[in-house]
């Protein structure tokens, strides 16, 4: 299986060293240097790689645009249309155009996989697709943003104010210089959109999510929760039958499986047969994203069933 | 795909009503009545079903014998040898003869799946095989027995003695009349053997597990842990590189992901790329077991790749 990789940054770097361990022949992009070279030097653009390289599977890890999905959407569409499998960590195109891309993949008898788009290293998409296959998925709830969870954990554990905890998160590299995307719940909302559209086949957009972030949460609120053996977490929740699709700070019992510490992510799936199943793990990081991407690549390598 | 089911009891009953929902044609055994009839009346034994029925996949849910794996081991061997897929919830044959059965399945180009043998509805085997594919699995630790976890939870939360909590567990149907198998850690140890042999390819047996149960644990020990923001859980642990394979009561911080309440099970997988990933859910129950079995059946239906 020949693999092409497009995209820069920590994700691409975290992965490229590891992917050769899977016994996969990466003809188009063998290592980090070539990957950077192909996309970074004039004359060999990502578009050139997609349209001219000899590959069976595209790994797409370019930066996310949650509104348009571009340029990744165009890249993925082109690769699928040319009969290539696609594995992406990019939330944009999956949130914006999952159904279109999914139909295209089916038409061309190739796979589109996106484990890395939701909760990093936590294999939630495969748990939903395979591990819980046959179950009716009634509800998905979870902690989908590690930055917010870190801030809330530090406020509760150390009595820091929101501003103090945010500053600490920035210093440790857990929050961006502009933390809006995380603390206002937008990043978590995009993951809900992906889950709603991929798990239930809905056609939701970011506008459909009822979003409240953590940026106006007071230490007093956390202290109040603490007095009742509870704490506050930014919880994303999808219950299609009740038309619920929301991100909001919620008071949770401290021993609830979704009450995880620090930058962890957690997802609870409510099902008819399996009951409540919870997955916890690291939601961000280059190696964690690489884990999700590689598991997708290996799944396609091992289990792609050619239809006649 | 034609499915034969052998086995009685709550597992068979919990499943048979549900399996037709998967769009699967169960020619050999269509419903609970027939399943009971086939195995329960003279003249139509489980052996008759296996050797004479027209089926592609055998669901084997007969009672467990952890020492010999029989009679399930013979049933499974026969079905695989005849080129049939096998899905089992039976810990015995997988703990006793995984490598032999696995080789036989590979020779015959059929699949042997056993998701239900470890932690019921928690899709841990698929998480290890697919969700975390490409990762080196460094360590697996977890709460593998819901009966013990229920007893420990009640001792810690309500100040019950071991005997009181055990009596309560019996009254609620969480513990058998003879609780030895659970409280002495044997049930959990069998699951460790299955994980050790299937995940790392080891050839361990029950004798290789260093087992300490919870039956001599005092309330005083739990109270001591509680004073340090900790509690006690019966933890199973496999670290092949350190030759560790043990079940023992362990002092755990209360906010540790493995500290789950009541009859829940939890498994933490330590990996090189994904870091620590934890799965939590119900480890027993007929619907929960059915969930695991059906997910195996659907995986085989959807992803069995015929080798030429």
Q: What is CATH's topology name of the largest domain in chain A? A: Dihydrodipicolinate Reductase, domain 2
* Spatial strand order of the main sheet of chain A: 6-8-7-5-9-10
Q: Which stretches of chain A are poorly predicted, pLDDT < 50 over at least 5 residues?
A: 10-42
Mean of pLDDT of chain A: 89
Oligomerization status of the protein chains: homodimer
User: How large, in whole angstroms, is the Cα Rg of chain A?
Assistant: 20 Å
Number of helices of chain A: 12
Greatest interface and its residue counts? Answer: A-B, 48 and 48 residues
Cα shape of chain A: globular
The CATH superfamily title of the largest domain in chain A: Dihydrodipicolinate Reductase, domain 2
- Beta-strand level of the residues of chain A, as a percent range? 15-25%
Total number of distinct structural domains of chain A: 2
CATH architecture of the largest domain in chain A: 2-Layer Sandwich
Sheet with most strands of chain A:
6 strands, mixed
The count of strands of chain A amounts to 10
**What is the succession of H and E elements of chain A?**
EHHHEHEHEHEHHHHEHEEEEH
């Amino acid at each position: 299986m020949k693999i092409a990789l497009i995209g820069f940054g920590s994700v691409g770097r975290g992965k490229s060293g590891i992917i050769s361990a899977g016994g996969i022949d990466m003809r188009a992009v063998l290592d980090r240097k070539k990957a950077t070279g192909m996309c970074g030097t004039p004359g060999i653009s990502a578009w050139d790689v997609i349209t001219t390289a000899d590959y069976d599977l595209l790994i797409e890890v370019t930066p996310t645009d949650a509104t348009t999905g571009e340029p990744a959407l165009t890249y993925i569409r082109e690769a699928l249309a040319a009969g290539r499998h696609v594995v992406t960590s990019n939330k944009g195109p999956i949130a914006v155009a999952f159904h279109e891309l999914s139909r295209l993949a089916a038409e061309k008898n190739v796979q589109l996989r996106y484990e890395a788009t939701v909760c990093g290293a936590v294999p939630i998409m495969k748990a939903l697709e395979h591990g819980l296959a046959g179950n009716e998925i009634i509800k998905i709830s979870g902690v989908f943003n590690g930055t917010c969870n870190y801030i809330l954990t530090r406020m509760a554990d150390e009595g820091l104010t929101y501003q103090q905890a945010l500053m600490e998160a920035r210093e440790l590299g857990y929050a961006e210089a502009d933390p809006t995307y995380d603390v206002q719940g937008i990043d978590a909302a995009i993951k809900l959109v992906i889950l709603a559209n991929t798990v239930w086949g809905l056609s939701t957009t970011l506008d459909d999510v009822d979003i409240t972030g953590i940026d106006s949460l007071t230490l007093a609120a956390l202290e109040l929760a603490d007095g009742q053996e509870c704490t506050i977490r930014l919880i994303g929740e999808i219950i299609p039958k009740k038309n619920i699709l929301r991100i909001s700070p919620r008071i949770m019992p401290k021993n609830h499986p979704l009450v995880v510490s620090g930058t962890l992510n957690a997802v609870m799936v409510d099902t008819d047969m399996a009951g409540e199943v919870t997955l916890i793990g690291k939601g961000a990081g280059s190696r964690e994203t690489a884990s999700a991407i590689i598991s997708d690549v290996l799944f396609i390598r091992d289990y792609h069933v050619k239809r006649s």
